[in-house]
Amino acid sequence: MSESFLRQISPLQLNPDTGEPFLRLPAPNSNIIITPPRLTDAPAVMSILNDPLVYRWMYSPPFPLLEVHAMGWLKRTKEQTDAVWADLEAAARDLSVPPLMTKICPVNILREVLADGTDEYIGVCEFVRGDFVWVKDKEEHERLNKENIALPVGDPRAMWSVGGRFFFRLK
């Protein structure tokens, strides 16, 4: 693995068996990693979003969440993260290219790494341009979103959001 490639993906790591990128949380949560989505995650997504302890707090997914809904979301999300990953890989081929700033994070699925080394889907943590969900006035909400999204990648004025797109189930 080249120094240029590692510089482009930092702080992400690569799974040595699959080549999949991941971000490991620091101790004491180092058994939690954030990876790209997998189409095989659909049953776990459905299980979590059809749980009454979760769905009653959600405002956007349909209920009941069917496999077609889970697969549709996973496919869209995977296309986006795969595109970012492809950009990072392309940039890493040229040592003269500075570290690339991306529009979205290429990892967004929370997984618990089990004792046997396998991992289990436990939720989603997306980092996206802030969507101003607390602004109730529709016109103001749309204006703020348009302005925020129009800011170039890397602009320090851009607002990012985790809330509203974060769901998981604790055991």
Number of strands: 8
Q: Return the average pLDDT rounded to an integer.
A: 85
Helix content: 25-40%
Which term fits the overall shape?
Answer: globular
Question: How would you sum up the major sheet?
Answer: 6 strands, antiparallel
N/C terminus separation:
37 Å
H-E string: HEEEHHHEEEHEE
What fraction of residues sit in β-strands?
15-25%
As a whole number of angstroms, the C-alpha radius of gyration is 17 Å
- Based on helices, strands and strand pairing, what is the structural class? alpha+beta
Strand order of the largest sheet: 1-2-3-4-5-8
Spans of at least 5 consecutive residues with low confidence: 164-170
What count of helical segments does DSSP give? 5
Structure, described:
Helix content is 34%, strand content 17%. With 171 residues, the protein is an alpha+beta fold. Strands 1-2-3-4-5-8 form a six-stranded antiparallel sheet. A two-stranded antiparallel sheet has the order 6-7. Strand 2 (21-24) and strand 3 form a beta hairpin. Helix 1 packs across helix 4 (67-92) and helix 2 (42-49) packs across helix 4. The N and C termini lie far apart (37 Å).
